[in-house]
Amino acid sequence: MSTRAYLSNIHPRWPYDRQERALSVGVPGWPKGVAVYRDELTLSQRKRHMVGDLEGRIALLRQTTRGRKGAEDIYLASLAVLAWTLPDLLECLTLAQSRGSTVHVLDTGLILPPDAGPGALHQATKDFATGRKSSIGMVGGEISARLRSEAARAKAEAMKPFWCLPSEEYPTIPLLKRFGLSRNTANLYLGKRPEAQRIHEAARKRAVRRQEKKRDA
């Protein structure tokens, strides 16, 4: 698995330092083991919007015959730094898919795997249009907070099957420690435990009654 990152200065609201802050919290292990591709264009180059001027992007998306589908991750601070126009963006994403690359867009959290369908690509076009017009985007602490939230949600989902079981079998404190969650975080994603247990027990009793009716029929 290889990891790549791309930066450019084609969008005025995404200077290099802003992109680097986003990459520093969004790319696993940054910058160790990350192949960085960068385009720094002159003012005249930025005005003429020539795809051929983006030599770093050309190298990033150069086609390969190795066929290692799914073996490469490409990270961008925003789609706004990848392309000049919507057709240019779609060409870039097509080239990335042809390489078997998964594209990670940090300001929106969008992930485009090699087999991304029309829905994901449509979302990419919407995000691109918004990003080219707006200065609003996640950077630094905002991306870090989103990543922590996603990690907490994943832990809560893993703990969910146990959260509704009797506390005598799975005491709350050891259960929270096992999955690395605080009680408040568990309550946020799973609801308070007594309520989860009540719902589970009521469902269990209904299932028992249905089985008894079938047996007696």
Provide a descriptive summary of the structure in words.
- It is a single chain.
- This protein is α/β, with parallel strands linked by helices and 217 residues long.
- It has two domains: 2-139, Resolvase, N-terminal catalytic domain (Rossmann fold, 3-Layer(aba) Sandwich); 145-216, no CATH class.
- Helix content is 53%, strand content 12%.
- It has nine helices and five strands.
- It has a five-stranded mixed sheet.
- α4 packs across α5 (118-133), α6 packs across α7 and α6 (141-163) crosses α8 (183-190).
- It is elongated.
- The chain starts with a strand and ends with a helix.
- The mean pLDDT is 88.
The span between the termini is: 58 Å
Query: β content, as a range?
Result: 5-15%
Unreliable parts: none
Fourth CATH level, the homologous superfamily of the largest domain: Resolvase, N-terminal catalytic domain
Q: What's the CATH C level of the largest domain?
A: Alpha Beta
Structure annotation, total helices: 9
What is the fold named in CATH at topology level of the largest domain?
Answer: Rossmann fold
Structural class: alpha/beta
- Number of strand elements: 5
The coarse overall form would be elongated
Percent helix, as a range, is: 40-55%
What is the N-to-C order of secondary-structure elements (H for helix, E for strand)?
EHEHHEHEEHHHHH
| Mean pLDDT over the full residue set | 88
**Number of domain units:** 2
Strand order of the biggest β-sheet: 2-1-3-4-5
